[in-house]
């Protein structure tokens, strides 16, 4: 039996997410956008809820095509509000549309969202050495700064705790605990 991080349940979906995605460095803007949206929807609900609805989110949000999402009409918003397969929170759905527009503004300014986001960690993952659950922070000074910068640009649902979870998910920080088989030796 593989030793995994403390938060992984016996759910195959959760285990696969942990084993193949979480903490793996992501530099592709499309995937970075997907995780940004999933993390913003996760605020206030469990991550397993998001994972269970991930395919529904992909269908509902045009496979996380930020260029399409940025142009969503009021009728598309209303359609999303009726979609039982996703989390029907009107503020989160509206923020997904505006965040897509702002995401593209950052791409224009920096050449890619990846360049912008990875600049917070000098382009390479921070390898932490956490031994147990209590060691892992909910946020850091870097996630505080990233959150502040995104909010200044108009992003919504990007508080420091959400941004730290995002940094963990896309591998900007490697927070696999030292007893986890994914922790680099």
TrEMBL record:
Keyword Zinc: yes
GO MF terms, alphabetically ordered: DNA-3-methyladenine glycosylase activity; metal ion binding
Keyword DNA damage tagged: yes
Domain of life: Bacteria
Matching Gene3D superfamilies: Hypothetical protein, domain 2
Biological process according to GO: base-excision repair
E.C. code: 3.2.2.20
InterPro entries documented for this protein: Adenine_glyco, DNA-3mA_glycosylase, DNA_glycosylase, Tag
Residues where Zn(2+) binds: 5, 18, 176, 180
Coiled-coil features, chain-numbered ranges: none
Keywords, sorted A to Z: DNA damage, DNA repair, Hydrolase, Metal-binding, Zinc
Catalytic activity of the protein: Hydrolysis of alkylated DNA, releasing 3-methyladenine
SUPFAM superfamilies referenced in this protein's UniProt entry, alphabetically: DNA-glycosylase
PANTHER family: DNA-3-METHYLADENINE GLYCOSYLASE 1 (PTHR30037), DNA-3-METHYLADENINE GLYCOSYLASE I (PTHR30037:SF4)
Function: Hydrolysis of the deoxyribose N-glycosidic bond to excise 3-methyladenine from the damaged DNA polymer formed by alkylation lesions.
Name this polypeptide is given: DNA-3-methyladenine glycosylase I
Origin species: Polaribacter reichenbachii
Lineage, broadest ranks: Bacteria, Pseudomonadati, Bacteroidota, Flavobacteriia, Flavobacteriales
């Amino acid at each position: 039996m593989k030793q995994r991080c403390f938060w992984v349940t016996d759910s195959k979906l959760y285990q696969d997410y942990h084993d193949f995605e979480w903490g793996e460095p992501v530099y592709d803007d499309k995937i970075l956008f997907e995780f940004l949206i999933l993390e913003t929807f996760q605020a206030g609900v469990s991550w397993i809820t998001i994972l269970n609805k991930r395919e529904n989110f992909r269908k509902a949000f045009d496979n996380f095509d930020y260029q399409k999402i940025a142009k969503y009409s009021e009728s598309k918003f209303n359609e999303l509000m009726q979609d039982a397969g996703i989390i029907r929170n009107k503020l989160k759905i509206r923020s997904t549309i505006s965040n897509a527009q702002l995401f593209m503004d950052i791409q224009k300014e920096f050449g890619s969202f990846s360049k912008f986001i990875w600049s917070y960690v000098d382009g390479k993952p921070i390898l932490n050495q956490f031994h147990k659950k209590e060691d892992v922070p909910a946020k850091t000074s870097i996630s505080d700064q990233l959150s502040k910068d995104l909010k200044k640009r108009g992003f919504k649902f990007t508080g420091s705790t959400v941004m730290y979870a995002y940094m963990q998910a896309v591998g900007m920080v490697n927070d696999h605990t030292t007893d986890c088989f994914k922790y680099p030796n």
